[in-house]
Amino acid sequence: MRFRTHQIFGTVLGVCVWLAVARSVLEAKKLASEERELSANSYDDYEDIETRNASLLFARDTDVPMADDTPPGFGCRTTCGIGTPSTSSKRQLEDRSLLLERVFDPFPPVPNTQKARDQYMIAHANALTTGQEIIPYVDNADDYATAVTAALGTTTVTFGMQGICGCTWLAVISQKRVYLGHYWESISFGKPATASYRLQFATQVTNFLTGGFKGQPSLASVAADLKGDPGLQAYIYTPESETKPGTQEYTDKIAKMVTTVNGIIGIDPVVRAYEAQDSGTPSGQATLKNTGAGKMLFNYDPTGGSRAKPNAWRILWESQVVAVGQWKA
């Protein structure tokens, strides 16, 4: 009797083990099928990355759905200032983790409203780490032009800045490299009381582009990765005139800057004027802090584009996509 009981128990145990193995095999096949389906569609979100012209809508406090993406974006005043990272919160830490893992987070966000776009820009600008900031925050440091550059290869690249309210910035992107520069309004384009106007502009802008300054990389130093590239693009964003909206505040100086850039990389950068917020007023400060105004992000992802052209980059400026590029691996 005892032997028969052991036989029955052994048979039941064997059946249970067989059922468990069969279930495991079926689940594995199902998971593999889902993974193949995900892989087949992994590029769908960026199948057709391209710039689209539209007007910038500053409906900052609304959740009204917006049209899909938009260069060129315009929006910043008194002098251009540094935006320092805010105190981290749980939400910001989550955004930073997301940014580091995948720089091509979907944009425009869902829901596609101006408020959601602004929140996206705020979160990602605050998530910038040391080395990603185009304007590094350094206490008691002299104000001077700054620049960052990086090769565009097999790893993701993220740069950005915030608090832009009257300064000029430059972006040059090829299929090999990105170069981004920031030039203070007060000491690069204005007329400081203690220095020659022309000397300051030459030191901070034209000479900076050709020779660098205080350890910052010059545009000329990376020209070999830029000039002649089939995907080369260049942009200058500069404040518009306060008295003549739609025109540049510093027309002559920007013309010299364009000539200098062309002499280095062989093409004229596209110049776009933006409305600068006045950081010297409470309303201007609030706009710079609580919206996408004055915030810029550059993202490169070697898997962010389409299957045919997986390498992709984009520039977000004041809650708008203002420039993009794609190419084959």
Explain what the structure shows:
The protein has 329 residues and is α+β, with helices and mostly antiparallel strands. The protein has two domains: 41 residues; 278 residues, no CATH class. 33% of the residues lie in helices and 17% in strands. The protein has seven helices and nine strands; from the N terminus they run H-H-H-E-E-E-E-H-H-E-H-E-H-E-E-E. The protein has a five-stranded mixed sheet with strand order 1-4-3-5-6. Helix 6 links the parallel strand 5 and strand 6. Helix 5 runs parallel beside helix 6. The chain starts with a helix and ends with a strand. About 21% of the residues have low confidence.
Share of helical residues = 25-40%
User: What is the percentage of strand-forming residues?
Assistant: 15-25%
Rg on CA atoms, Å: 26 Å
Order of SSEs, N→C? HHHEEEEHHEHEHEEE
β-strand number? 9
Class by helix and strand content? alpha+beta
Most strands sheet: 5 strands, mixed
Euclidean distance between termini CA atoms: 72 Å
How would you write the strand order of the largest sheet? 1-4-3-5-6
- Report the mean per-residue pLDDT as an integer: 76
**Gross geometry:** globular
Low-confidence stretches at least 5 residues in length (pLDDT < 50)? Answer: 28-62, 68-79, 81-101
